[in-house]
Every structure is written in C-alpha cells, then in structure tokens.
Amino acid sequence: MLLDITAEQVKLKCQSQKSPFKWLNIIHSSDMVAYPITSSLEIKPDSNIVVTDKFIIDNANNLEGSVRQIAKTVSDITAINKLLDLGAIAAGAADAHIGYWNCPQTAKMITDHILDHEEKIINLVIKRLEKVPGMASFGILGNLEKTIPGTDEYFNFADGSGHLKLRDNFAHVPHISIYDNEGQFKFGGYVGAIHANGLREEIKYIKQKYGK
Asked: Any idea what DSSP says for residue 16?
C-alpha cells in the first residue's frame, strides 16, 4: 500500500511463478495498524498465491496486562468491561506494532510456515479462550466434566487435534472443556452470567472457523 501496489498487481506477479507464493501475515491482537488481508485480496483458485493470517494473542507490555487483569475483576458492569478492554488494547498498541521483531511467537510462526508445520487447532482455541473476558480456569476438575450429563455444544476440531464441550450448570453458568484427540483434558473454564453471551459468541466463532 505504501508503494501504491494494488492487489491485482500482486496476483498478476504471482501467476508468473512456477510454484504458489506463500504469504504469512502476522497480526498482534493489540496492533491497530495490522489487519487480516486474506479477504481483501479476494484470492481465487487460479491466483497462485496462498495467504495465511495468523494472530499473536498476548499482552504487548506490562501495562496492557495490568489493565486486562483489572477488567477480569470487574464483573458487574458490562460497559466498564468493554472500556477496559479497549483501554488494554490502547495501552499495548505502540509496543505491539514494533514488538514482532523480539517476539518468540513471531519466530515460531515464520519457522512453522517455512517448514509447513501448522500449529494444532486445539492450541489456537485454548489461546483464544484464555483471553475471553471473565474466564476462570477450573484446572484438574476438567476430567470430572466428562461424567456430567447435559451438553449445549459439542464439536470436533477440523484437524482432528481434539474437541470442545460447552454446558451450563444448574445456575446457568457456562462451562467450557477442551480435550485432545485421545480424550485427555487440556483446558477448562467458566464465566459468570455477565460474560456468558461473550463466551457463547466466541464458541460460535470457533465452531465456524475451526470445527467440523
């Protein structure tokens, strides 16, 4: 964009290559400049280009981490939670934009991209769930979730790395459990009523993007 190069010029150049051009677009969740480019390029099967958008979901600095921690403790007023979430992003925006150079996640994503080692979906899902506002972990009790009847949502991950289970307890508090492909518990947590809709929206997105 800075060089005034259009998406059509990029695709035209790639069509002249023998093998598909592999483009890895890394986006920190707090970087206000970076954005997904897969949809904006409108890539077609004959474009000879493979674009992958990957997100780094982490705090860019200590200030962002502190604001997010405060947001987790505020559970009675939704508006305040939303403002704190925006404040956390703003607090980490500058460091997020320049932090790729010193970020271990960036290095791993590039290495995996070159070697065609894709990160398992189960790990991506767990990282997303850990960031859900109001999320509290129930640790080793996760294995007990298998024995509790009643499931509101259940689906396997597209790469076969595991599955997700969502259920409400008797107080209508949503509980989320993640198991690997061998049935071993990997992550579990719950949110209060004030954050329930946010968790359900996240599950809906995960099912659409990673489920089968």
From this structure: T
d(CA 175, CA 165): 8
How does the average pLDDT of the chain come out, rounded?
Answer: 76
Q: What pLDDT was estimated at residue 63? A: 46
Q: How many residues would you count in the chain?
A: 212
Query: Domain check: are 138 and 87 in the same one?
Result: no
Question: Residue 212: its pLDDT value, please?
Answer: 78
- Are 12 and 22 part of one and the same domain? yes
Scanning 29-148, the segments in alpha helix (DSSP H) are 38-41, 62-73, 78-98, 104-115, 121-130
Structure tokens at 25: 């677009």
Angle at the Cα of 186 from the Cα atoms of 157 and 180, rounded to 5 degrees: 40
Of 193 and 129, more confident: 129
Cβ neighbour number for residue 141 with a 10 Å cutoff: 12
Considering the domain architecture, whether residues 133 and 186 belong to the same structural domain is answered as yes
Whether residue 80 is found in the same domain as residue 155: no
Domain count for the chain: 2
Gyration radius of the chain's alpha carbons: 20
The verdict on 27 and 96 lying in the same domain is yes
pLDDT band at 163 (very low <50, low <70, confident <90, very high): very high
**What distance in Å separates the CA atoms of residue 147 and residue 10, rounded to the nearest whole number?**
53
Strands 136-137 and 185-190 come out as antiparallel
Is residue 114 domain-shared with residue 124, that is, in the same domain?
no
119-158 tens-digit pLDDT? 788 988 998 898 888 888 876 655 555 555 556 788 999 8
